[in-house]
Design a protein that fits this description.
This protein is α+β, with helices and mostly antiparallel strands and 430 residues long. It has two domains: 162 residues; 242 residues, no CATH class. This is HupE/UreJ protein. Keywords: Membrane, Signal, Transmembrane, Transmembrane helix.
């Protein structure tokens, strides 16, 4: 997915644009090679058009799993004879075919081949060299496009999808894969960016946080929101919300990333949607005196579990996971602070006017609707019906934010002041 990074971190959160297309795509009729650099190996995935494979390997595969299974020994030998990966000292990696499956790529029947490449030294270090001749030698006009899916220490963590490395053909079947200044710091910086991107991309996470902030400037009296609190008190309440959410998602992110606990993805995604619904209900009518802090902490655990997917997909060892978790959390927190810095002043301004009630009710009601739509989309494996609206907002983030600010100023000017209310829970005389 393509994302435009603005000059300031605030713009980083707001200026994430819609994807241009799937990163797994490659020209029709060509082969593709995907490399995933892990802690102790390189995973290699090949997508080879079936018609080209049949011509080059002398096979007659019809695209069925049964035909592929019957030809597995011959296909395995053919693949291992045409792929070679070496380290910077030209020492070969040990290759093993882990799966052979027929699939459809870009509307073309293809063979999906998975290989595991183990470095001779037992750990990855330095640049790599790929030698690839499958189909290329037999069909000189054929091309194979190479992509890097992820490599933490080289700074490639899947942000924006696999990175194109180059193409191979009969005249040039070799590709040097330069890992640059691969280091823990490079990986840490990449994970900071990925954490910030997850907040920027995660409309559900953003809506959850903003919905929680709706109640920060208000005081609960008699089971309803009856007045506003002083700025100092509102800032303290906001700090409590952010701290609770941070504590929750940091805890579950670490536990899941280190494999100490695990949950099925579907229930987690439904729970994320449910967290927005609970936050919306609290914004409409207070659940408890400090309900938004409780909701932030409890459901922070759920959101952290969802965040962990980005780290689990990298297949890291313990040391690299520590780096990834720390960097990802820093990125998430920076992005959260930007969101708070952009949204809270507007909410504090509006909370001084009687019209804030209608904004709170309107936005909370929208959040409740969005949460239900997200849950339905997850359970039916479809896109939410509100996706076009979310795409429009993320495609024009600066315009959307400035429109929100302009509407807030207009509402502030058009409505009467709202009185302060004593907040016994904060010990403040207002």
């Amino acid at each position: 997915m393509k994302r435009v990074v603005r000059v300031l971190l605030a713009a980083l959160v707001l200026a994430v644009v819609a994807p241009a297309g799937t990163a797994w795509a490659h020209p029709i009729g060509a082969s593709a090679v995907y490399l995933t650099v892990r802690a102790d190996r390189v995973d290699v995935e090949l997508a080879i058009p079936l018609d080209k494979l049949n011509q080059a390997a002398g096979q007659h595969l019809d695209g069925t799993a049964e035909a592929v299974a019957a030809a597995r020994p011959a296909l395995t030998a053919w693949v291992l004879g045409g792929v070679r990966l070496t380290d910077a000292a030209a020492l070969p990696y040990q290759l093993a075919v882990t799966s052979l499956e027929p699939q459809e790529v870009n509307g073309t029947r293809a063979l999906d081949v998975r290989l595991s490449a183990t470095p001779p030294s037992g750990h990855l270090d330095g640049d790599l060299q790929l030698d690839y001749s499958l189909v290329l030698n037999e069909l000189p006009g054929h091309k194979a496009f190479v992509f890097l899916v992820s490599d933490l220490e080289a700074g490639q963590v899947g942000e924006g999808g696999p990175a194109p490395l180059g193409s191979l053909d009969a005249a040039n079947p070799h590709l040097s894969i330069e890992r640059g200044t691969a280091s823990a710091w490079t990986g840490f910086a990449a994970m900071v960016g990925l954490g910030a991107k997850h907040i920027a991309d995660g409309t559900d996470h953003l809506l959850f946080l903003i919905t929680l902030l709706l109640a920060a400037p208000l005081v609960a009296v008699g089971g309803r929101w009856a007045g506003r609190r002083p700025v100092r008190s509102a800032l303290g309440r906001t700090l409590g919300i952010v701290t609770a959410f941070t504590t929750g998602h940091t805890t579950s992110l670490a536990l899941v990333s280190f494999g100490l606990i695990q949950f099925p993805s579907t229930p987690v995604e439904v729970a994320v949607a449910g967290s927005i619904l609970v936050a919306a209900i609290h914004a409409l009518r207070p659940l408890t005196g400090r309900g938004e802090i409780v909701v932030g902490g409890v459901f922070g655990l759920v959101h952290g579990t969802a965040f962990a997917t980005a780290i689990l997909d990298l297949g890291l060892d313990t040391r690299a996971t520590v780096i990834a978790v720390l960097g990802f959390n820093v990125g998430v927190e920076l992005a959260q602070l930007v969101v708070v810095a952009l949204v809270l002043p507007v909410l504090l301004l509006l909370a001084t006017r009687s019209g804030y009630r209608w904004l709170r009710i309107g936005l909370a009601s929208f959040s409740a609707l969005a949460s239900v739509c997200w849950a339905v989309a997850v359970l039916t494996d479809t896109s939410t019906i509100l996706q076009p609206l979310f795409d429009l907002i993320t495609a024009h983030p600066l315009v959307s934010y400035l429109s929100f600010v302009a509407a807030a100023v207009a509402g502030w000017l058009a409505t009467r002041p709202r009185p302060l209310v004593t907040d016994p829970s904060d010990g403040l005389a207002t």
